[in-house]
Amino acid sequence: MSYHNPPTTPRRSATFDEYHMSEIRRAAATGIYDIRGAGAKRKVPNFDDLLFLGASISRYPLEGYREKCETKVTLGTRFAKKPIELKIPITVAGMSFGSLSGPAKEALGRGATIAGTSTTTGDGGMTEEERGHSQTLVYQYLPSRYGMNPRDLRRADAIEVVVGQGAKPGGGGMLLGQKISDRVAEMRTLPKGIDQRSACRHPDWTGPDDLEIKILELREITNWEKPIYVKVAGARPYYDTALAVKAGADVVVLDGMQGGTAATQEVFIEHVGQPTLACIRPAVKALQDLGMHRKVQLIVSGGIRTGADVAKAMALGADVVSVGTAALIALGDNDPHWESEYQKLGTHAGAYDDWHEGKDPAGITTQDAELMKRVDPVAAGRRLANYLKVMTLEAQTIARACGHNHMHNLEPEDLCALTIEAAAMAGVPLAGTSWVPGQGTF
Amino acid sequence: MCGIVGLFIKDKALEPQLGALLSEMLITMTDRGPDSAGIAIYGGDAKGHGKITVQSPNPDVDFKGLDTDLGAKLGTKVSAIVKSTHAVLDVPAEKLEEARAAIAELRPDVRVMGSGEAIEIYKEVGLPEDVVKRFDIAKMSGSHGIGHTRMATESAVTTLGAHPFSTGPDQCLVHNGSLSNHNNLRREMKRDGMKFETENDTEVAAAYLSSKIAHGENLGQALESSLNDLDGFFTFVVGTKDGFGVVRDPIACKPAVMAETDQYVAFGSEYRALANLPGIETARVWEPEPSTVYFWEH
Amino acid sequence: MHASNLATAPVTKVNYAPKVFDLSKITLREFNQALHDITDGATETNWEVLNPKGSHAVAVGAEHAISIDVQGSVGYYCGGMNQNSTITIHGSAGPGVGENMMSGAIFVKGDASQYAGATGRGGMLVIDGNASSRCGISMKGIDIVVGGNVGHMSAFMAQSGNLVVLGDAGDAFGDSIYEARLFLRGEAKSLGADCIEKEMRPEHIEILKDLLARAGITDVKPEEFKRYGSARTLYNFNIDNADAY
Asked: Which interval of the chain is the signal sequence (chain B) (predicted)?
């Protein structure tokens, strides 16, 4: 090597990084956009950028295990004759049968029931596995109306009109390579083995004024008994929450961009929608402006992992949080136990997101009869119950440390933020300051 | 997102009932929009007279002496009829523009809702029933009228955000739906010198039509142009001095029902709005086609 | 044929006076509750609804084989999710008439607004007049017979069942259709993506003959119709078809 002619170290482009170059090659070779599940993977400001202050002298903490910290929550108090009661402020989000296997659905029902909370159907209708094993079951009413029938509507405990999902606000389009097995095809009235087109709007209403009439119809059919939820993606949370309330919702479900187990275009998952953290305050503001905070309950989902996340979402004004991806992990998805099989699929335990392809070694996001045997619904349900209970305990621990005898008494003033971004999004001061950036807007 | 009603009277004998019929139609549509309500009534054909409907948040202060102050400024006689937060000023038709400028100077807080030879516009925050009562709409007579009840989507719930929007003489527009390119259009039209009072998508649509008309298109042509240039979902009902038009976007998801008899042409977002009109049982009832301009003129 | 299509046996008409519900005197809630309170073996199976005046959600969620005559025009979703009952609307129907119906029959004597029979899974919807846009959208087994024309995007993403149109169809007829059968007597302004004309074979004539008979239509012949269905080119993605999506 000549001293006078030193070589330049080969430099990789930050713009054309390894991932994007592989994606360009993949698109060029296949002529298909990338489809996957598992929600946004890019780093976005999230609950990790918030901290609780805790109590000391100016406020008094509550004794753990001794002094009460209530976790119960009632949903549907606005119009429904039969509101639903959850023992814990954590519920299981809608995930479709077809996407999930029967045993996985059963496990979700078992786990949620042990923990005293609800689970939710998904695109594809209600299965016996989940109805039979879920004490409280929310029935999703989706644009596709796959598997939709009045009998299931009546035997649900609540109805969730799905307008958007965190993975794809405003999205419909084309889902390739859906695993349409015989049973799934029958439930969806579709030919076997075809791609699935998915509508972005409901087939028989558009806009909040029509939604109000759709909600009236659902209430009339179910004799005004069941809470009606409206689920929106974290896109324009202030307006969408306000309009769901004006249209007559009992409960608003708000799904941030990290949410969504649904298979959709990667470009959609990563580039459309707002982070969950950024969605909560605008939605709560809309409820407050309408005098409906705590009267119309707010369920927040999208990237909830721990009891700390639960407590932070509730401090920002949510009534309940909802878990999807985390529930699948609790059941055993992406478990290192199956690492060698994940590697055969060209991925790793922890990175597997082709949930729509039906090859899930963990037997959860599959319709393969052999693979799904790997899910023991009783044991997996128990794991989910444990996880939900641990999260609740964690959240209670924090609430007590902040001096609250009810989870709902957590407030934004219990929090500070580590970054300016998180401070602005959550509307709480930057740590060590009284500065709340971005106030007065949403 | 809203409820729309419209009534174009063909049989003069029905004109005294215009306000009453429209009021009832609008009240029926309350569920479609709880935020604000408004109505435009076209009537009065006194030759040479012009009308300016103005609104004030402080009517007691602003409307006191407005007729004499304005008359003095214009050097002519001006009369005013005050109805709650609104007042209709009667000025010579050829002095309409001058009068609008004078009002802005005399009473800076007063807003012009609309002006022309036939149009009066009344709109406020609140339910249709309260709004029509407040302005005594049921007693009004006229040749045609349009009503709107609003469920605000993205812009503020205010008096100025209520429909109808009027951006040209004797023109008004109401809208059900939601436009998705109104911000860009507003910026373009602002560069062309147009003024906007709100952030409302519908005001952009109204201004768009007025601008097309100002550039020589007739209302029918302007509505045709809107099908190319406006992005989003809309059912529009528009009024002019002599006419009444309807157009829906190509996707046509927002509802619309029309009825025609020898006595009238009626529009409703839903059939409910038309259900109590005289002779509705035997009327021709139909749904306007997408991307098709419908227009009636006296 | 889809099993639920067989459940459209005519309701036995009983000759005593109908049970009358006047919506100018009772609320929609009271009427629908009465409808849901019917138990098996109810004897009063002949109902009449007066003064609907465009009300929404009239006679939704019926479960029993009764006949309901609605005297006047209705708003959105009349007969929504119907099972077993026969509903006759003596007037026009607003958006989504018979949406997601499972079985039974709905007859509209006037016109129907958009989304007629949306996502219907069974039973029969007969519209004497015109149906506007998106008639039979996402239909999943229902049989729909329209005496007049249908608007644009009718049978959009239609999955199964039969749509029979005696008049003309608007733009994008049968767009993104799956396995539903479309029978059109007039002309379509345009066909939607992946929808093509198909051969009318003897078995289709038989199916159509049965549909027309059940709809009470006697003055047109099955041979006057053309059949449309899916070209199935969009069933599995090919980037060169991207313009069709």
From this structure: none
- Chains within contact range of chain B (3+ C-beta pairs < 8 Å): A, C
pTM of the model: 0.93
Angle between helices A208-221 and A237-246 (to 10 degrees): 50
**Domain boundary residue, one of B98, B117, B136:** B117
pLDDT value at C1 more than 50: no
- Asked whether residue A442 is assigned to any structural domain, the reply reads no
B275–C contact, CB cutoff 8 A: yes
Look at the alpha carbons of C239, C243, C244, C245 in this order and tell me if their dihedral is positive or negative: positive
Structure tokens at A20: 């994007």
A213 part of a folded domain: yes
Q: What is the CATH number of the domain that holds B182?
A: 3.60.20.10
Concerning whether B253 is annotated as a catalytic residue, the answer is no
Residues in chain B with CB shorter than 8 Å from the CB of A208 are: 1, 151, 153
In this complex, is the C-beta atom of B197 within 8 Å of any C-beta atom belonging to chain C? no
A193 falls within a domain: yes
Q: C3-230: which CATH topology? A: Pectate Lyase C-like (2.160.20)
- CA separation for the pair A270, B49 (Å, rounded): 61
Residue B252 structural domain: 2-41+125-297
B257 in contact with chain C, both atoms CB, cutoff 8 A: yes
Question: Range of A83's domain?
Answer: 46-332+375-426
The total number of structural domains that make up chain A = 1
Which residues in chain A are contacts of B35 at CB distance < 8 A?
246
> Tell me, what CATH number does A288's domain have?
3.20.20.70
ipTM field: 0.92
First-to-last C-alpha distance (Å) of chain A: 59
Q: For residues A104 and A90, what is the distance between their CA atoms, to the nearest angstrom?
A: 19
Strands, E, within chain B: which ranges? 2-9, 36-42, 49-55, 79-83, 86-92, 111-116, 119-125, 144-150, 172-179, 232-239, 243-248, 257-260, 264-268, 284-286, 294-297
Q: Which of B176, B269, B272 to mutate to test the interface with C (most CBs of C within 10 A)?
A: B272
Partner-chain residue, chosen from A207, A212, A239, that has the shortest CB–CB distance to B177: A207
User: Taking CB atoms and an 8 Å cutoff, what residues of chain C touch A31?
Assistant: 238-240
Q: Convert the pLDDT of each residue in B103-147 to its tens digit.
A: 999 999 999 999 999 999 999 999 999 999 999 999 999 999 999
Using an 8 Å Cβ cutoff, are B106 and B70 in contact?
yes
User: Within an 8 Å CB–CB cutoff, is residue A153 touching chain C?
Assistant: yes
**Could you give the 3-state DSSP secondary structure of residue B278?**
coil
